[in-house]
Design brief:
Elements (H helix, E strand, L loop, with lengths): L34 E15 L10 E11 L1 E12 L5 E8 L1 H6 L11 H4 L7 E9 L11 E6 L5 H11 L3 E2 L10 E7 L2 E5 L1 H5 L34 E4 L2 E13 L22 E6 L9 E6 L12 E4 L6
Antiparallel strand pairs: 1-2, 1-13, 1-14, 2-12, 3-4, 3-5, 3-7, 5-6, 8-11, 8-13, 9-10, 11-12
């Protein structure tokens, strides 16, 4: 029997938490933020001038876009890493902002001196920013503070420390992370679809009615020997709610809270409502449902030139 399902992601397992993990980041010599967060609001369509090298170059085309609402993000601390055994990196210290650290539940805020880490920058292999987002400004709140790490770019550790030290205790904006036309990688958790059979989960063929008395099941589970069922045989099981990363998603527009009326659809986005904060329009679809947290990262594999997109129209028709 031919296996028709993809084993690209295996084993299939549910995500443990809704804050996606970002295990790698691009190497950048610029003093910049290499990551950000957003919430998926919904989808609409736009009309733009095609700036690719395809047959429609220079003409107006319709594109489906995803609207991501960007919450307020504050930098409450700095984390310093040093090399350990093999490729293992361990934390050697943290610096917190006294005012913001209390909001995230950190009581020990005496470590607020960055100068002692600047003096031993040669021992530090990586520096990251500790941030939290304010979800209470969205249509839906959060009972707990959402904290995460943001990688930082720079020529060396000293440059990274200088850059993050200037952001400590401040709010960072999405336009400090990306510009219109940039390519980003999006990590999210896909839609959870519950228990699914082998046909929906792996796409195996339905059996004939008179073959086995069953139709929507796998006909053969394997050979006589070895006397076991291999892991690659399609089985029913849980479908969806997995970590997924889509690379090279183009940012077509970056907007502020002052012009949200230009993208809010009539009646609000389904299962989300209206956008109130800064937002971005991303070309195409992304994993996850509405209200799903999305991690953004500077593109790690992009080789295409960055061009300023020219948008002519954004649909605000009702999606009800």
């Amino acid at each position: 029997m031919t296996h028709k399902g993809s084993l690209e992601y295996w084993p299939h397992r549910r995500a443990k938490r809704q804050m996606p993990r970002v295990r790698s980041s691009p190497i950048s010599t610029e003093k910049e933020m290499l990551g950000f967060v957003g919430f998926k609001a919904g989808m609409t369509h736009i009309m733009m001038i095609d700036d690719t090298e395809g047959p429609a170059k220079g003409t107006e085309v319709a594109r489906a876009v995803t609207v991501l609402e960007i919450p307020k993000v504050h930098i409450y601390g700095i984390r310093f890493y040093a090399n350990g055994y093999s490729s293992y990196k361990h934390v050697i210290g943290e610096v917190f902002d006294t005012g913001l650290a209390a909001k995230v539940g950190i009581k020990a805020t005496k470590n607020n001196d960055v100068s002692k880490f600047k003096s031993k920058a040669s021992e530090i292999c990586n520096v990251t920013a500790l941030a939290f987002l304010d979800a209470n400004t969205l249509n839906f709140g959060s009972k707990r503070v959402m904290r995460f790490e943001i990688p930082v770019g720079g020529k060396n550790s000293a440059d990274k420390i200088d850059h993050v030290a200037g952001l400590l205790g401040k709010e960072v904006k999405i336009n400090e992370f990306i510009k219109p036309g940039d390519y980003i990688d999006i990590t999210s958790i896909s839609k959870g679809k519950g228990w699914a059979g082998a046909i929906k989960r792996f796409g195996v063929a339905r059996l004939y009615r008179k073959s086995t008395g069953k139709i929507r099941h796998v006909g053969v589970l394997g050979a006589w020997h070895p006397a076991k069922v291999l892991f690659s045989v399609p089985h029913s099981g849980h479908l969806g709610y997995n970590y997924r990363t889509e690379i090279n998603k183009r940012v077509l527009k970056i907007g502020t809270a002052a012009d949200v009326d230009s993208i809010n659809v009539k009646g609000g986005f389904l299962n989300y409502g209206v956008v109130k904060n800064d937002y971005i329009l991303v070309d195409g679809s992304i994993p996850g449902t509405a209200k799903r947290l999305v991690r953004l990262r500077k593109s790690i594999r992009n080789t295409w030139p960055v061009k300023q997109p020219q948008l002519n129209y954004v649909s605000t028709a009702s999606k009800q």
